[in-house]
Amino acid sequence: MSDNSETVEIHGHIIDSLSLPKVLDELIEAGADYEILEFNVGKSHQDPSYARIKIWTETEDELERALRRIHPFGAAPVDIGEVTLEEVDIDGAFPASFYSTTNFPTEIRIGGRWIPVEHPEMDCGIAVEETRAFTIPVADVKRGQMLVTGRDGIRVIPSERPRGKSALEFEFMGSSVSSEKPKELQVQRVASQMKAVKKEGQKILWVLGPAVIHTGSGPDLSALAANGWVDVVFAGNGFAAHDIESALFKTSLGVYLQEGTSAEGGHEHHIRAINLVRRSGSIEKAVADGVVTEGVMYQLVKHDIPFILAGSVRDDGPLPDTITDILESQKAMRELSGNVGLTIIVATMLHGIATGNILPASVPIICVDINPSTVTKLLDRGSHQSAGLVTDVGLFIAQLAGELGASKS
Amino acid sequence: MSDNSETVEIHGHIIDSLSLPKVLDELIEAGADYEILEFNVGKSHQDPSYARIKIWTETEDELERALRRIHPFGAAPVDIGEVTLEEVDIDGAFPASFYSTTNFPTEIRIGGRWIPVEHPEMDCGIAVEETRAFTIPVADVKRGQMLVTGRDGIRVIPSERPRGKSALEFEFMGSSVSSEKPKELQVQRVASQMKAVKKEGQKILWVLGPAVIHTGSGPDLSALAANGWVDVVFAGNGFAAHDIESALFKTSLGVYLQEGTSAEGGHEHHIRAINLVRRSGSIEKAVADGVVTEGVMYQLVKHDIPFILAGSVRDDGPLPDTITDILESQKAMRELSGNVGLTIIVATMLHGIATGNILPASVPIICVDINPSTVTKLLDRGSHQSAGLVTDVGLFIAQLAGELGASKS
Amino acid sequence: MSDNSETVEIHGHIIDSLSLPKVLDELIEAGADYEILEFNVGKSHQDPSYARIKIWTETEDELERALRRIHPFGAAPVDIGEVTLEEVDIDGAFPASFYSTTNFPTEIRIGGRWIPVEHPEMDCGIAVEETRAFTIPVADVKRGQMLVTGRDGIRVIPSERPRGKSALEFEFMGSSVSSEKPKELQVQRVASQMKAVKKEGQKILWVLGPAVIHTGSGPDLSALAANGWVDVVFAGNGFAAHDIESALFKTSLGVYLQEGTSAEGGHEHHIRAINLVRRSGSIEKAVADGVVTEGVMYQLVKHDIPFILAGSVRDDGPLPDTITDILESQKAMRELSGNVGLTIIVATMLHGIATGNILPASVPIICVDINPSTVTKLLDRGSHQSAGLVTDVGLFIAQLAGELGASKS
Amino acid sequence: MSDNSETVEIHGHIIDSLSLPKVLDELIEAGADYEILEFNVGKSHQDPSYARIKIWTETEDELERALRRIHPFGAAPVDIGEVTLEEVDIDGAFPASFYSTTNFPTEIRIGGRWIPVEHPEMDCGIAVEETRAFTIPVADVKRGQMLVTGRDGIRVIPSERPRGKSALEFEFMGSSVSSEKPKELQVQRVASQMKAVKKEGQKILWVLGPAVIHTGSGPDLSALAANGWVDVVFAGNGFAAHDIESALFKTSLGVYLQEGTSAEGGHEHHIRAINLVRRSGSIEKAVADGVVTEGVMYQLVKHDIPFILAGSVRDDGPLPDTITDILESQKAMRELSGNVGLTIIVATMLHGIATGNILPASVPIICVDINPSTVTKLLDRGSHQSAGLVTDVGLFIAQLAGELGASKS
Fold this sequence. Notes:
The structure is a homotetramer.
Chain A: E1 5-12, H1 19-29, E2 33-40, E3 49-56, H2 60-70, E4 76-77, E5 84-87, E6 106-110, E7 113-118, E8 125-129, E9 132-136, E10 146-149, E11 154-156, H3 165-174, H4 183-199, E12 203-208, H5 211-214, H6 218-226, E13 232-236, H7 237-249, E14 251-252, E15 255-256, H8 269-280, H9 283-288, H10 296-302, E16 307-310, H11 326-336, E17 340-346, H12 349-358, E18 365-369, H13 372-379, E19 387-390, H14 393-403
Parallel strand pairs in A: 7-9, 12-13, 12-17, 13-16, 17-18, 18-19
Antiparallel strand pairs in A: 1-3, 1-4, 2-3, 5-10, 6-7, 6-11, 8-9, 8-10, 14-15
Helix pairs in contact in A: 1-2, 4-14, 6-10, 7-8, 12-13
């Protein structure tokens, strides 16, 4: 037995949350040996368990890698120490040994106390200012800030799987991504989750792709917005352009939404819609000017519902409200993501991933797309409460509006 | 200019049906030269046009191949001659030079007269008995029958694209296969096409896969059947087994359709359902015995709606009604396909292709599937009136039932 | 605490195989309370663990359901008793309370001894004759046979996850189904698994769909067959028909495989190929007659490699070798599945599921398809050693043939 | 017959290019009546045809709409007049009646002469400066510029379908989007098209998504770049970040490309790679500093191959070379798109659409993706020479490199 050993501990619902098995898995895959020194199992499922595990490896490097593997599952050395801080030497770049964050709740040990890290977000650094610790994206970091490096003094709190009645709902919603599930039931579950979130005074964030408009769901979504079921919107130029196209020309991508036929010259409609809003100066002014008199964007303006239109390189125009700088877009999205209790991503991979990137793991995400690959990809980084619906975006929003009593007029 | 030449003619709406351009395309791709000898264009779109084209090639073999290419688009030699007949020498096999059919209306010239071929069906031979000509599958042919060989004396009548108001509806429904179309509108169009078919006294054939049950659409489909919107059903053992599973255990594939949770031992439910029906002897007897008291199969039995359950090699059980021989299944399906005015294929590639194989091109097909590849493949062999809906099977049937006033109780 | 209680035990690698957490999960989801009475954890990962758990519920019915949920994970009552047998009363139907099998190794306790059940297969019954116990499909059962009912005296042995070096390969191959994995590496792993299977004297079973021929992989697959890498083939009429079409006409579905262009009248080629083989009487005779002189089917005949062509309702023709009765097909497939050490399913959902249905869980399956949904569905019922490759069937077989030194000439 | 009539003419290969049938189609769908006044058909397929058609409608508005429908197919009023120009009144917005461009070659009539419009690009305006006419995106337009409005004096030249030998290749490559095509042949065709383009002194533009790296194709693509087969690259931050991750850590998204296993802490690798390049200041400097010593980006720097990394809202970091403003990205892409003779889009919808938006229809596009929906969407706006390959990105690039003799070392 070599000297390269460390004793780690892990507590909580480590059996039924699968944390312990995952830690043992990782150790085996890392080629490490282990011995379970102590193991107190919770007698029933309300009781937490505790395990103390000795790990050893052939080289020190292997030990380091093994510890890094089990860190995200909540297993940490018994003597975890204090965080190491290093001063940032270049604007917009971290020291090479920076600690890279997960989106789980994280605490750092400093001055003998555990401090929670504000706004858990993936792939960031942790900056420390006096008694505060917060995540910071690499592009925002400034010379002279103090940044957490290494892995000492840091603990991640993995989320537990829900239990009881809500666990059953979770089982249905969250299990595998498949189009072959009872569909009306799925819609009802989304509706009841929305009601619960509103009851707790939290916000519902919608992340929307242009297919919402192409499939004719604009009027239903407008009704949802008018009835208080939409608190924040993240979308792109395309969503807003086609929504305004439908308000001005009754078409989306040139197809009449009430007849399904192509309009003559209809492929020009979206760029004409964009141009008209550019002439007004902004969507808000276009509403004030009487240019835009219906649609989702109209309802957002009318009901003071904040929205972000994040630009992308495939945009036509764009609309004057579209943020053309991607770092500005990310910043704006972060600012609007506070107190969000539920995120509903519909028919957009790009904006869905962007939103998933900035949200803490604790915010549940519901992804709705007709393509199972898109749903699978979006759920990858979500919380345990997240769920994917492989369904038709158009029929989904229509049914949801009906379920919530928000019918289009 | 070589001697290998032939003069062909083509008439009808050859410009706006694209027949003429397609014929010229094929000639170019066959490497043939051509000269348009006569061309009378219909002045307006009501008038038929006519073209006479001289074709020549370097070798006689090339000429033969060029003529074969343009034959399916209605271009035939001016002097088309009479059909050649050959006696079948082996049971279950055609003479090597047999004429292989398309699913378009076809006529053969015999005794100086044009005779229509009964039941146009792809990949068959044409048998002639006295004054009748009819398609015959290779497995059914008997020694001594007279069969059409070669290509002389045969003309195919390509279907024309619909015009006028119905053309506009067709444009919307039939154009490209895409999930990004106005969805409620698509459902309305299907409903109105169903009403039109019933009004003309024709039958609606449903071809159904098990996802119809998994997505919770069984009650809506039952209501459609109870209200006269289902005249014939083609399905497999899986569809019926899961439908009866849902009647007996409230689950489909072991998932409770009302709660979405897994039943304990639920993966056994479908085989238990099958076993119980086997104990009764047939679905009809299981209904009579009071074993099966609800569901789609129950409604079919109760309302005397004929159904075919065609067996496949992946079947469990199977149910006693499942036809285990594939040639028997095909024969049974052919017998029930008379006077079908509309075929609706939902969530099944296997049974959808099998149905497409036996139907004439003139029967419109509506394919509904969440997977665009499936829809594209199924539409390949359909008529000009066919349409594909890339949508959620569960929500589609629910909306359709609502649209037709056939609500589940 | 009610009287509805039972004590169960579970042993083996119950932590790192996730069996224990899964059992606890199931109990919670069943609404049962539990207490872990004894828990001996294996100190290192070579050592087995053991747990004894007391379960109680409010009603006896709930207890029954809870026990049924944990049964497939290897948790069985301490006092498991002996199997109950019941005489079959009707040909082709089980007694209503029959035990429905999994595809995991299973033992039954009879006369105080544990007897293994021969040929584990899903959704069957267990028949007992003297000292033998074997699975039997419902359609094959005869009046007077003795069948296992209930759940007493039955234990299922869940398969353990592989460990060590092969575990690492498994991790790569078997983890998530995704097209975004290192592809040449995946092909190398399949090749090395094939070599390992042959070294152990086991058979490689290929299950093949027609896209293998359409994508131009016929010559590579022929080379694999000629070089001993194909021991058994399961396919359908379409695969063989297009293979023979390519041998006779150089086309597949009418497309020239060497030029990619459509042959004139090419859509008739497959039915002409089928007809010619029907004239010979069988594929073997068509090879003997010199009608078929190359291709995959030719190599199978030449090298005495057994194959099953299982018919389906969408078949044209079919070829004389196609088994038209589905129960006959299943029987034939079962007979050829002995000593199979690896199953490679390429581009076929229908035959893939049929094969998965009859194989024990212990036979590793590699599924190759360009559609991730197909791969996911096929892997559902496979063993822990199964793997899915979302890739291009044509390029996959070409690379694999290169990797195994079986180049087409 | 009303007074709302107009006479249009159309010439060229209007039958076999399908222009005439499409014009007639559009007229019927627009509800217009027509009479073909003159029709001179080309006798053979080398000869152009000519048609003069009188159109009339019930209202003037309908006539206007009918003319707008047929305009993109090359049908224009006999007396087409001169273009109308209007002065731009606001920076960044067109006059409301601006002419919206297609990506086909376009000419405008001014001062009695036809002037070609420079750089055909969709959804732009046409600015006129002295004797030059050029497309201009709405965001770039400045007050005081003269812009084309209305539809007078403008003609679009629809591209003709290729004929002869290249037509046959086109038929194979370009026809339907399907995964079931001969694959090695497809790769050979791409290789021969690349050789032809280089021979004519034109550039090959690659548009690349991160899956190129995940699938292990980086070394093959590096070899293609090192051997002169890559002239320009458009990609995003993700492609470059994972390429540099693979150079620094041998992983992509944390998965070792040589073993397929997950690296410990591997999910951090891409952000660590980005951070290291940020510390150098740019990719070029990171190469110069010896930080990046292999990979695609390394080869681009080493061989002075220009690249654009267009930022998107989901980017981590980003790399210092990533252009964060989307309008800057579009501008940079336009500047590098001159003399491009072939565009190969691999595994990216976002950058593929962005590239399709700015290219003239005359530049052939080859789209390669494993998802058929992506390929279909990308081809929508391409030229007649465009082709889609539904295949495995990893195996495709490996085979292509082999075909072009650019093997990785």
